[in-house]
């Protein structure tokens, strides 16, 4: 009788264990199903350096990590609106978005992506040989206060030039900067790849600065994984899956720049041509490491504060602590 009772008890415990285990599995399956059913909106601008987004979407990296992703074409203005309204869940962030983050834009940086992607050029016969020669000249950029202006401004301050009073800045759409320089409306221009390199390849310009090769900027990451703060707080599994997807795609682009360029052109995400974009992607260093990303983020915030782009009262370490999140798997 005792043996029979013991057997029944053990059978009951075994059945309960199966039931509990089954419940856990069902919950996990349900969570995965919910995550896949949720459409995640990833924004992009159409830049050469956004190749990890294109690759993650076209090569199934997002899907492999349990995400159903829709890509959304953005501008600087629609990015802010999209993050604020929850219509954009993730985007590649550059120093151009750091001022908005200081002002409260609810986006968190979670990892790095790459170095490089901005160049400054002058006409081939220009006397300008370095940033020091820009004093008293007119420089074209794609946006006042944007990353190309920030990079040049940081270097000007290092050289003792006041970028606010000793240089004249003019903003043009990126594709129009080369024409503005040819018409002598500006003496030089700085913007995102591929536009400066196109001007160089066409024999219209000569590069004198790039954050791909010029020290100390070549060692700093310029683009980062940015995730809507609501997602980080309320949907941490999605935030982790996005960060993981970016990291995997970033590594893949670094190892397969030609294939990444082909995807970018074939799917009409960006301009230029395959050979040009492949050469540019091969020059960048693709680094997802969150600790290195955090250090570069801090570096640029300090530079932007020195440029007076950030408020004088802003405490950089506090801002970093609030806006950079390392997501533990």
UniProtKB/TrEMBL annotation:
Which superkingdom does the taxonomy of this entry point to?
Answer: Bacteria
Lipid metabolism found in the keyword field? no
Keyword Signal recorded? yes
Q: Name one GO cellular component term.
A: periplasmic space
Which Gene3D superfamilies does the annotation name?
Periplasmic binding protein-like II (3.40.190.10)
Q: What is this protein called?
A: ABC transporter, substrate-binding protein, aliphatic sulfonates family
Where it sits in the cell: the answer is: Periplasm
Q: Which PROSITE patterns match?
A: PROKAR_LIPOPROTEIN (PS51257)
What protein family does this chain belong to? Belongs to the bacterial solute-binding protein SsuA/TauA family.
Provide the alphabetized UniProt keywords: Signal
Name any one Pfam family assigned in the record: NMT1_2
> Any signal peptide, and if so, which residues?
1-20
Q: What is its main location?
A: periplasm
